[in-house]
UniProtKB/TrEMBL annotation:
Protein name: Haloacid dehalogenase-like hydrolase domain-containing protein 3
Entry superkingdom: Eukaryota
Family: Belongs to the HAD-like hydrolase superfamily.
Classification lineage: Eukaryota, Metazoa, Chordata, Craniata, Vertebrata
Organism: Vicugna pacos
One cellular-component annotation, GO: nucleus
Length: 251
């Protein structure tokens, strides 16, 4: 009789898989700006934020660590550039807002645990699975997970800042497997990004599941993934694990 797959490790993306921001980025920025006497439209800040974030990520990948930046400096620059792009040229006026935003995003109150996340993590542990985090995030993540009561579910929290490489770089997934001392064939990753999570983990031989957000999945992505790898919501993970573990082990 063929041996059945028994998963040992489940690694997790965090943002928009287990947690999301309570408010859109633009609103968060606009509220803090207003508290410092600066009135800027949330929609302008939202658009400017994503432009600044993309530009900063391209120029200085993974928080600019290899360029000598700290993740804090990296984020303060993103805020300065965001306001600059939204029409605020006075960097001195923006500096205390940037400081405040950096603190606020490390505050668990800024984040919200997604529906079904806590129960799913609990059920996974009951099945005997070991859990860990693999996230493109900075050093603030550990404290956020502690504050939201999720940290206890994970053996370790591996951020891209700590690993030195962001997903989908295979090295961050390999580092997670090394820390857990498990083979890729008995590990699976859960996340909401097709290129970073779903494909990144598969590239090193792990299994993976794609958590679909509230928006419809891009048809090109939907058609390229087996239906059983797509989770319309987190509670769909448990039956998906049953199906996966019902399949023969491939080493
Ligand atoms: Mg994510």
């Amino acid at each position: 009789m063929a041996r059945r797959l028994q998963l040992q490790l489940l690694t997790w993306d965090v943002k928009d898989t287990l947690l999301r921001l309570r408010q859109p980025m633009g609103e968060e920025y606009a509220t803090k700006a207003q508290a410092h006497g600066l009135k800027v439209e949330a929609t302008a800040l939202e658009q400017a934020f994503w432009q600044a974030y993309r530009a900063q990520s391209l120029s200085f990948p993974n928080y600019g660590l290899s360029h000598g930046l700290t993740s804090r400096q990296w984020w303060l620059d993103v805020v300065l550039q965001t306001f600059h792009r939204a029409g605020v040229q006075d960097a001195q006026a923006v500096a205390p807002i940037a400081d405040q935003l950096y603190k606020d995003f490390s505050n668990p109150c800024t984040w919200q645990v997604l529906q079904g996340a806590e129960a799913t993590l609990r059920e996974c542990r009951k099945r005997g699975l070991r859990l860990a985090v693999v996230s493109n995030f900075d050093r603030r993540l550990e404290g956020i997970l502690v504050g939201l009561g999720l940290r206890e579910h994970f053996e370790f929290v591996l951020t891209s800042e700590a690993a030195g490489w962001p997903k989908p770089d295979p090295r961050i997934f390999r580092e997670a497997l090394r820390l857990a001392q498990v083979e890729p064939a008995v590990a699976a990753h859960v996340g909401d990004s097709y290129p970073l999570d779903y494909k990144g983990a598969r590239a090193i031989g792990m299994h993976s599941f794609l958590v679909a957000g509230p928006e419809p999945l891009d048809p090109g992505i939907k058609d390229s993934i087996p239906q059983e790898h797509i989770l319309p919501s987190l509670p769909h993970l448990l039956p998906a694990l049953d199906r996966l573990e019902g399949s023969p082990l491939q080493l």
